[in-house]
Structure formats: C-alpha cells, structure tokens
Design goal:
By secondary structure, the protein is α+β, with helices and mostly antiparallel strands.
Length: 500
C-alpha cells in the first residue's frame, strides 16, 4: 500500500469549533448549556450565510463513515471504547501477561465529570491483540456507543479535583503522577490504592505523596524523568518546578515506622491522616505566561525544557542555576501547548502550538540570545496542536494530535520525499475521532500500538472516545520489504488459483 494513500484516504477535517487557547481542559457542559450555545452559534451562522451546525455535523459524520470503511485496509488492529465522561489523559502502564495471541497490560485514564459524581482516575486492564492476528473484516465492526471488550475497568481512584494529566514513572510504571486544578502534583501507587465506588459525596482517595512548590494552579505541564525518579511540572505561576521522589524516600527511611518507600497504605476516605509531602529541588523562572508543557532530556535528569503561552521554548540545566540556559523567544506564532524530547537523539526537540503547526528544533542550533530556527515546520493540522510524542521504536517517527480531530503520524526522514498527495513527512492520519484528540500515548511494550482519546463534548454534548490501534505494517515498513512480501503473496495466490 502506498503510504501517502493511507494518509490521504483517512483525513477528515474534524474540528468545527474555535477553541479558547488558554484553557484546553474544559469541564463538561451542563445539559442546558449545549442547546443555548448551539442556538446562539446557529443564529450567527445563518445570519452570515455559512453552514449550520447540523450541516457541519453531517459533514463530520460523512467523513467518519468514509474512514470507517477504510479501517480493514489501513489497520492491523483497532479497538473502540465509548466513555461516559471525557478523559483528558491516557497512558500505558506495565505489561501484566503475555499470551499466544494477545498481551494484557495496564491502562490509565481519567473521568472528568460534571460534578454529579466525583472525578476519577481509572486503572484498566487492556487486552492488546498481537500483530497480524485480528481478522480484517472484524476490526471495523464496532458500535460507537458501546464499550470495548478489550478494555476492562480494574480499579477506580476518587481524585481530588479533575485529572488533567497523567504521567507514569519509567522506573516503576505502577507509580503515577497527576495534575489537577490546584498547585500540587499528586503521586499515586495504583497497586496499593484501594478500589473506590464513585458516588456523589464520596471522600477523595488519599495520594501517597504530594509535591508542593507551585504558587498557582499547575494543570497540564507534567513529566517524569527516564533516568531518575524525578518529577517536573509547570503552571500558571510561570515557573517550572523540579522534585525528586527520592527525597521523600530518604526522609521516610529515618522514620522507624516507615519502610523507606513512597508506598503507604491509604484509608478508605475515613482515614484523616494527611498525605506526606515533599518540597522542590528547584524552582525555575524564565517564562512570561503559563507553562503548558515540560519534558526531560532522555540522557540527564538535570536537563529539561519547557514551553508556554508566551510562545517560548526554554532549555534548562539544574546544575547551572535557576535561569534559562537557552530561551527561544518566538518558537511559534501562537501559544505553545506541547513539547517532547527525542528519546533516541537528545539534540532533537518537538513543539506543538495553537498556530496549528509542529516544529522540530535541534538544540545545537539554538543560541542564548533567543534566536532559534526550526529544522522543519510540519503543517498538516487545521486546528491547535495539543500533543506531540516521539515514537519509542523509530527515531525519526512521531505523532501529533489536535483540535481538528486528527492524530497525524510523521517521519522526518520522509520530508525530502515530497508528495503532491499531502504534507511532507506525513504518512498516516488516524481519523477515528470525531472531536479534539486531547491525548495519545505510544506503547513502548508493543511498538506501533497507540492509545488515543478524544473529548466529544462539542459534538455529542458529553462523553469521549478511547481508541487503541495499530496501523498495518505494510504502511511503515521499508518499501522493498513490503513489495517483496506482496510479490510472494501474489505468487501464492496464482499458485492456488491454478490448482484444479
């Protein structure tokens, strides 16, 4: 299969509502609110002679139907899981079991409710079907309104406030950090936390550790270090804050009642004992507006970067103090929403922005006087980019998701091979979401398998969609390898056809 055809064949435009750039995690609307907004916006559209909301929804549905018809061709496997409440974050946890045809793995996601029930952190068990196992005719036969048989809820944690971001600790992915609508970062041991029943009035679960240091809410910017048990955060106070979980373990080890671990038994809500807390290793100032995302260097716990609503990309080194090492003043033409540092090449940094583009920077080209030109500007989204992440499997491949409902997969090595069929470097578009794709995560245990989640409030008035998918390997494997396989298959078919 031609990879550009894969990109072109599944590329509905998606987003129909202009977002507010400052707040990406909006609370679900009340039942009355969507109708009022639709009436107001519908009136304006009719007055200006533009398409009505109904026409736009029909267009989204038509493009979605076109994508669904291509699923057996484009995908090796796909699972669709309807969410009652939108989820702003989804992450893979540890692999639990390997079997002949599928593996079982933890999956972390959130439930952002309207207040009628508590906000929750959900730990699920996911059956990940192995490559070339699922029958093509079956993977597109799913009901959009149903839950997937491959995703089973394992445990519910009642979260104090909405869950805006989830990140797992690479050294132990049973330990996760969450961002909420407060200045604190919450640390959870998901295995020792008790399973809770989320009903109105239920007390919140107690975090295993609270990281303090922000002076204002820190809602989105959150990262865990790949080399040390360090946590990084950014917030509305314009600062970047660094912690070491090891600091708490060291302190706890001096307590005779402690085992020297962050793992502490938590009560069922009736336990009034406060969670332990730890202060920061450092607080870093250099941004002039809210810090939207942060990332650690793949090779050093002391080096990290941040992006924010001031359109800046800043590189930091904890060994040289709390001021920026490098500050790119105009990294994009609008607010920056996301950043990721290449795990295979520590010189390459990706940024995504409200200007609808993804930019690739080489830190060797950046100077301390605020000048920095990206190596390349990737243009393929029609709305604000919300999430970027490098592939754990191939150093030149990365994904980007946006408010246009698309999750694009790019390969920087293909940029020079320009095609008239689509943007340079773009070789796959996942178009299974009908609203903004707020988060996604490559599966390090199962290369080329991705979990993605959309907030469907704008299109359906509530809920969300979780999808776990893997594109056909004929799309990303080397061309000569694919052609050789297809030729072998052709010979096999011809041999079978010639037999009486």
């Amino acid at each position: 299969m031609d990879s550009d055809e894969a990109a072109a064949g599944a590329s509905p435009s998606g987003g129909t509502v202009t977002p507010a750039p400052k707040k990406r995690g909006r609370k679900p609307k009340s039942k009355e609110e969507p109708q009022t907004q639709q009436q107001q916006s519908g009136g304006k559209m009719k007055e200006s002679g533009k398409k009505t909301k109904k026409d736009e929804e029909q267009s989204v549905d038509e493009k979605y139907a076109q994508w669904k018809g291509l699923v057996p061709i484009l995908y090796d496997w796909l699972a669709n899981h309807n969410l009652v409440w939108p989820s702003l974050s989804c992450r893979w946890g540890p692999q639990l079991e390997q079997a002949t045809y599928k593996n079982r793995q933890r999956l972390y996601l959130s439930e952002q409710t309207d207040g009628s029930v508590p906000n929750t952190l959900v730990i699920a068990n996911c059956e990940v079907v192995k490559p070339r196992v699922a029958a093509a005719e079956h993977i597109s036969q799913f009901n959009e309104e149903a839950r997937s048989p491959f995703v089973k809820k394992y445990k519910t944690i009642i979260h104090p406030g909405e869950v805006n971001r989830i990140r797992e600790l690479p050294q132990n992915s049973k330990i996760i950090a969450t961002h909420t609508d407060s200045p604190d970062v919450l640390i959870w041991d998901v295995e020792t936390q008790p399973n809770r029943h989320a009903v109105l009035g239920a007390a919140s679960s107690r975090p295993d550790l609270i990281l303090t240091g922000h002076q204002d809410n820190a809602e989105f910017a959150l990262a865990m270090c790949p080399t040390e048990p360090f946590v990084l955060s950014g917030g509305k106070d314009k600062s970047v804050v660094l912690w070491s979980i090891q600091d708490h373990i060291t302190t706890a080890a001096t307590d005779s009642k402690s085992s020297g671990s962050i793992i502490k038994q938590t009560g069922e809500g009736g336990d009034k004992t406060e969670s332990p807390s730890v202060g920061p290793r450092g607080v870093y100032h250099g941004h002039d507006d809210t810090v939207e995302d942060v990332a650690f260097s793949p090779t050093s716990a002391q080096e990290f970067c941040s992006v924010g609503d001031d359109s800046c990309l800043i590189l930091w080194d904890a060994r040289t103090g709390t001021s920026p090492v490098t500050k790119v003043e105009k990294a994009h033409d609008a607010d920056l929403h996301c950043v990721d540092w290449n795990p295979h090449d520590d010189n390459l940094i990706l940024t995504g922005s409200a200007d609808n583009t993804v930019r690739l920077y080489d830190r060797r080209n950046l100077t301390s006087n605020g000048v920095g030109t990206p190596i390349y500007k990737f243009e393929g989204h029609k709305a604000a980019v919300l999430c970027v992440q490098w592939s754990p499997d191939k150093s030149s491949v990365f994904g980007s998701s946006a408010e246009d409902g698309l999750l694009n997969i790019w390969d920087y090595d293909r940029v020079s091979k320009k095609s008239a069929k689509g943007p340079a470097g773009l070789f796959f578009q996942h178009a299974g979401h009908r609203d903004k794709v707020v988060d996604f995560h490559w599966n390090a245990e199962d290369p080329w398998t991705i979990v993605s989640v959309s907030d469907d409030c704008e299109t359906t008035g509530g809920g969300g969609t979780l999808q776990i998918w893997r594109m056909s390997d004929l799309i990303y494997r080397p061309e000569e390898e694919v052609l050789a396989e297809l030729e072998k298959f052709k010979s096999h078919v011809m041999t079978c056809a010639s037999k009486p």
